[in-house]
Amino acid sequence: MAMTKYMHPRNKYKNKLDFASLAASYPAFAEYVHTGPSSGKPTIDFSDKNAVRELSRTLLACDFGLKVTIPSDSLVPTIPLRLNYLLWLEDLLNWTENCGENVHGIDIGTGASCVYPLLAARKNGWRMTATDIREESVKVAEENVKGNNLEDLISIVKVEDEQKILVGVLPEGKTTYDFCMCNPPFFRSDSETNSMSKSRTILRDPPKNGFSGAKAELVAPGGELEFVRRIIADSKLLLTKIRIYTSMVGHKNNANELVKELQSSGAKSLTKTEFCQGNTTRWGIAWTFCPEIRLPPLQQQVVHNKKLFQPMELTIPEEIESIEYNVYCLMNRIREIFVSLQFEVSEKGKAMSPGSKKACFEVRAVRNTWSNRRRKRRQEQSEPKTKKQRVEEEEEDPNLLSFKAAACVVEKKIVFKLTWTQGSLGRDALHQIMQYLMNELRIKNK
Ligand SMILES: C[S@@+](CC[C@H](N)C(=O)[O-])C[C@H]1O[C@@H](n2cnc3c(N)ncnc32)[C@H](O)[C@@H]1O
């Protein structure tokens, strides 16, 4: 089963790549496109390092207007995964209400492609400080920045001592940073790079050994675990100089181990996520020493994405009070209920009409207006809210909950579905919303 649907909801590579149209616009890429023997559709040979490199260059050019050199001995950055990490950072900054214009981030180990800073600067206008230990990579990274006219936003720092990560690397001074990010060297040894899985698609990363970048890019003493431990050690010294520390982690066990260590590190808040692309999952961890920052709760992030996106279904019984039994009337009534809860509702696809057999809304809630509503109303009547309570309830969280509400006819019955798409409240909130709708529509629990 294609797993792309579990990618970040805003990841444009959720949908299948159109190799034919990319080939039509990018002649250098066209050289690698052929008809797949089993699918009969245009594809590339994912075991061909040059083809994969050209695909990354083409996506960066086509979707972000970036012209990027990726030297033949360097790691080829797969773009869907890089985008998943960046989108998560956007979410964290939104969550902490730091989505202003002056975001300044750090990319530890930027590589020759300088892919994260280029994407962050071009896509979001963020200022980025990028570091790397490898002379050759720093040189090409600088050329990539210059070639895209992004020198005003991106600066590159050459690390002189491989033991150093942040402390002793960041320019001295009072500058504070909004976040740091890192795709750490994965391997403990050269031999480990040779035992990578053989199978690969565009969505897989890190690549099998034939694709690996130079040893210095991929290998570090103690592998990713030790590398991230060094970021944690530096974070305990730098504290609030960087508001949110993050890293990608390639192994689930390492991610769990690092989370455990962070729990006793003195960090004020921490969280973890999964980056799903193709058949590969990577993990993201984030922590902060800023007391005012509350990262999304850990327990909501560990639910496997597959479950998160599973729709919650309700077969609508034929007798519901005050509405006719058809998709149009039901969804109009549901829209009214959502609007009364102050949700933002937009209809997806073709506009509904009285004969519609299906309909779908995209819904966003920025405040919890549904849970315990009756109790709250009763309480309010007997005891008016304090000003503090009112302010708290009126506070908006742009990342609270987004979901889809859809109805369709299956064997003459209307099936109604709620599907979580994103938001800190997680999928559980949909149970409450479904129950709320059932109460409003006077549908009894079976
Ligand atoms: C897995 S690569 C990631 C490259 C790029 N960020 C990407 O995602 O495609 C790890 C990078 O970390 C760099 N590196 C290793 N030790 C480092 C250190 N102490 N400080 C900065 N970079 C380092 C390597 O040279 C390499 O470019």
From TrEMBL:
GO biological process, one term: rRNA base methylation
Recorded GO CC terms: nucleus
InterPro entries on file: METTL16/PsiM (IPR017182), METTL16/RlmF (IPR010286), SAM-dependent_MTases_sf (IPR029063)
Residue ranges, compositional bias (Basic and acidic residues): 379-391
Keywords: Methyltransferase, S-adenosyl-L-methionine, Transferase
Residues annotated for S-adenosyl-L-methionine binding in this entry: R82, G109, D132, N183
Region listing for Disordered, in residue ranges: 372-394
Chain coiled-coil ranges: none
GO molecular function terms attached to this record: methyltransferase activity
UniProt keyword Transferase, yes or no: yes
Entry EC number(s): 2.1.1.-
Domain of life (superkingdom): Eukaryota
Family: Belongs to the methyltransferase superfamily. METTL16/RlmF family.
Name of the protein this chain belongs to: U6 small nuclear RNA (adenine-(43)-N(6))-methyltransferase
